[in-house]
Fold this sequence. Notes:
The chain is α/β, with parallel strands linked by helices.
Amino acid sequence: MTETPAKSKRALTKRATATAKTKTRKKNVPSPPAAVGSWEDDPATAVGLTVPTPDLSKLPLAFSFPAGGPPPAIYAQGTSQFRYWATAAALRRGADYWANRVPLTQWYGGPNLNVVLDMGFGLDANYDRTALNFFHGPGVTGTVFTCESPDVSCHEVGHAVLDAFKPGLWGAASKEVSAFHESFGDISALMSAIQIPSLRTAILSGSGGNLYTTSRLSRLAEQFGSALRAQDPGLAEADCLRNAVNSFNYQDPTTLPSTAPMYQLSSEPHSFSRIFTGAFFEILGVSLAAKAAIPGGPTEAELLAVADDLAGFLVQGVKCSPIVPNWYAQVAANMVVATQTDPTYASIAKGVFVGRSILSLHSVSSLPMMSNVKSLAAAAKSATAALEPLPLVALPASHHGIDGVLFVEAAAEPLNSIVSAADFKAEPIDPPSAIAAAKAFVDDLFMRGQIDYGAVVDPERRLVRNHKTKTHALVKVDGGARLERRLFSCGLCARGVIH
Length: 499
């Protein structure tokens, strides 16, 4: 019979000492980083999310939040502390996503972008090149704080990101350019939400694997939308602010009304933006179905990968496109060119853009030849050109009460290629000249009451509407006035919602 050797007291002492030291080291191990609470997509859906504490000072896209904020922790939903960290988490997620794909070295105004969590009363949010500004206003079940919705905050991040890498779009007097800025904001909200694994899983499970169907991913800013509908049913879509699943096809914006209820299409930027957003989300849905290893059963990892691919195509489309009146067609064409290395993506992008009339059949047929002459040098030249100021044009302005002419930035960069959208008969649409596009854009601004006259126009000669947020302002210059953009606003008080 084998006996177990007896252990000496010395050996037992050594083991006990080693155990004690081990326990002491465990106590000195740093605790995991604090976590904060947020929402997956929007407060209306009430799906909470716990994430690591975001680093607001992270470069290249840092945020400057209000001083004296609450320490990171899991706070009760509905409190100011919860809103602080919920907004911080969403903004950090959106900024990090785009910083890895553009890439960017800083915001337009520098390494830090200010965040004003509550600028005052109003159903609004905006980006003014120095800050993201949020507000509070009456909702259906209580006060709505616009910063709290990741859909809203990541939309505003989209404005700031696009302004950082394509700053020439900021002042361009073009309906399509202005609308695209809003579309990029909505796409930013979609792409930021897709970064959340639990949301990807839930969306694919709830839709049976069919991404291009109405869901809480496609429905943007549900809480915000319900607050607006309570003020005026025409200010938002039936179940959200805007839905990425829609059937809007391209129409010449100069033929559309300046404003219309949201179930119709108008030339107002948020309304017209839905054409491009819908096309992008449709391409995403169809591409996911085509790329899935199991037909009809895409995984959340496949959704993330396809979304990342399309975001890359979009960035290339924006970078390589000259700023001209038919901006939608230019970006769409360059997105298709960017997909040429993958026939699946290429055929889907062409099919959707043609089906939505954003590109004409003739334009698409010429794209394979265009891809042969594309080069990194051409793309770099286009990106560099965007950093140069757009040319100023002088518009007659007496009918606006202005003595002299009105100078505006025209969407008149040199064309790389000739592409066009299509009409309802599938015939190519000749885009308006830069001057005609600028005139139509300015007329719309005056009609919607979005211009601050300042001291340029006498009070009795102004057009006044009950509209608090002014996206543009008149500045007195020799020979007349100059139109300058102040901000990109959610545009949610265009009918006097804010008093």
